[in-house]
């Protein structure tokens, strides 16, 4: 007669982990779907450095996760309900393991990891591990229900921050403590623009990457149609932007390589210390996205508001220009000359300024001889009465040309 060794009430997941360890005679760790430690068995058995680090930090080290992806272990666990044998990965301190996913319908709730001791596993041990995974499902579902209720409150709180609902840093910090959201000294708001509306499966993949990254802290995030909005917290203000840019590149690369999900672009606002500035940083990130759409070539490699340069002011300048507060007669003369003589002097001067007045680079970009460029620049000077040696004139002309393009986007 078959007796289920897990058909009993467990007071905690730790008690369950000890029961699995007792039956399998090896150390056990139980993780959620994002590799955060939920429970682990006692230390009477051998353990390896990767397991020790996981227990200390309450999460699997990112270098271990990356190695498991490279070795194809995690893709197998996300596709099968069968146990997966994991060979030793010595460079990250991971010994031989047997792992299994905990499933509910088509969703992975977590994982059970067993260190393989000296003796090879028997069929009975594999059967016990599969029974343990089925028994763990209900225990993890109870955790998931509590987590979802908390996440709903956190989502509402984050949107209040993004929309400037709070006027007091004290109120924000107090709310963070109530929701158990860690308060970091520095932060920025970032946005990832996806190509399509973010569906449930992609939401899980996003959650997985955000919860497993250890490049910087991400205390809050939310999804809005085609956008992922994150609150990122670099450890330092000095190199904050560098760390955020590195995280953005890594996140976009991993979404593509691991899940075949393309992200169109990313953007983030300035790094601040006062939490009442979250709405400001969010607005700055939206400005970066807006400018990247308007000027995809010039801003292809720009992600931060700080590096947006003159484009930071385009909405304000465009509004003043729209009301006739300023006018560039030189640009109008060049546009009229191009229209009448079918020339491209406006394109020439814009490219010349794009290339920081570098003659050879400009000629190469326009696919013309440098002598031809020199002739055009002379005509531009004559027709528009533009002094190309005067930085103020060049900057004014350059901004006005970009504003013209911005008006038509």
UniProtKB/TrEMBL annotation:
SUPFAM superfamilies: Homeodomain-like (SSF46689). It comes from the Bacteria. Pfam families: GGDEF_2, HTH_30. Residues 164-291 form the CdaR GGDEF-like domain. Residues 345-402 form the PucR C-terminal helix-turn-helix domain. Belongs to the CdaR family. This is PucR family transcriptional regulator. It comes from Anoxybacillus flavithermus.
């Amino acid at each position: 007669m078959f007796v289920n060794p897990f058909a009993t009430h467990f007071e905690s997941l730790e008690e369950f982990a000890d029961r699995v360890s007792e039956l399998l005679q090896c150390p056990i760790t139980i993780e959620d779907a994002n590799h955060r430690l939920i429970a682990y068995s006692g230390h009477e058995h051998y353990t390896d450095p990767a397991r020790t680090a996981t227990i200390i930090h309450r999460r699997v080290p990112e270098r271990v996760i990356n190695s498991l992806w490279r070795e194809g272990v995690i893709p197998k666990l996300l596709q099968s309900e069968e146990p997966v044998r994991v060979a030793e990965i010595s460079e990250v301190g991971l010994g031989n393991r047997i792992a299994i996913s905990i499933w509910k319908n088509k969703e992975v709730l977590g994982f059970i990891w067993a260190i393989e001791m000296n003796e090879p596993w028997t069929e009975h041990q594999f059967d016990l591990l599969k029974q343990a995974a089925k028994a763990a499902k209900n225990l993890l579902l109870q955790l998931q229900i509590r987590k979802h209720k908390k996440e709903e409150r956190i989502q509402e709180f984050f949107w209040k921050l993004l929309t400037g609902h709070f006027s007091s840093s004290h109120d924000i910090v107090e709310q963070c403590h109530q929701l158990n959201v860690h308060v970091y000294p520095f932060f920025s708001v970032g946005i990832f623009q996806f190509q399509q509306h973010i569906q449930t499966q992609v939401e899980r993949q996003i959650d997985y990457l955000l919860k497993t990254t250890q490049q910087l802290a991400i205390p809050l995030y939310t999804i809005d149609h085609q956008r992922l909005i994150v609150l990122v917290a670099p450890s330092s203000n000095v190199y904050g932007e560098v760390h955020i840019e590195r995280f953005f590149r890594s996140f976009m690369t991993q979404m593509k390589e691991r899940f075949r999900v393309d992200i169109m672009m990313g953007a983030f606002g300035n790094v601040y210390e006062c939490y009442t500035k979250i709405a400001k940083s969010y607005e700055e990130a939206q400005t970066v996205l807006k400018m990247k759409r308007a000027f995809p070539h010039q801003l292809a490699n720009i992600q931060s508001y700080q590096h947006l340069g003159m484009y930071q002011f385009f909405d304000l300048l465009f509004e003043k220009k729209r009301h006739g507060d300023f006018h560039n007669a030189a640009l109008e003369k060049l546009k009229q000359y191009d229209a009448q003589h079918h020339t491209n002097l406006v394109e020439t001067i814009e490219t010349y300024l794009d290339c920081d007045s570098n003659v050879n680079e400009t000629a190469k970009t326009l696919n013309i001889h440098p002598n031809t460029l020199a002739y055009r620049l002379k005509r531009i000077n004559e027709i528009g009465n533009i002094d190309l040696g005067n930085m103020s004139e060049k900057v004014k002309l350059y901004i006005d040309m970009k504003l013209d393009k911005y008006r038509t986007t």
